[in-house]
Amino acid sequence: MAGFASPEEAALDPMPTGITHVVVSRRAVGADSAIAEVEHADHTSAVGVRQATERDRGALHEMYRAFFAEVETPAYWGVTLRSELVEVDEILADGLAFVAEEDAEIVGFVLARRKEGTRGLLSDIYVRPNARRNRHGRALARAAADALKERGATHITLSVHVANAPARAAYERWGFRARTLTLDVPTEELTRRLSGNG
Q: Which site among 38, 53, 141, 142 is 20 to 30 Å from 135 CA-CA?
């Protein structure tokens, strides 16, 4: 994937304005569905996270296009929307794609992978802008973490843009810690500097 999990641009954990509390509980709707009721001061909306199915493929592709446009991926990586959508389909078929629904509308997704060793990967998290700050990112990440744990993952990794401070702060609240740092430099600049000319 593009390699950057980009949940809500605003902080994910604080209770949004107008919400009095959030209750998440498993219900008889299915073992892989976590249902939450978000009680706003003026109304209650049904919020749920469930495993994505083939029926959700079109909605996933539509949201991934929005995600791809929003997340800056360096051109030199050679990542294309077409290749990314192929990977979305692979993750969907593997059962590690989850969607968030609000009032029966899909408003977000998370894609995960079980990697080598005992590592799981949160590949991508996306919530539509008009549904952000309602804890969808947190609920999606929890669904993916539960699924990865069931598949033997003891640790979960993700990548995030250095400049995405709200997402980084949320990930740190969730317990993620920086372990590696990816740096880049144009080849011409590196060779110039290593030649002693810079």
A: 53
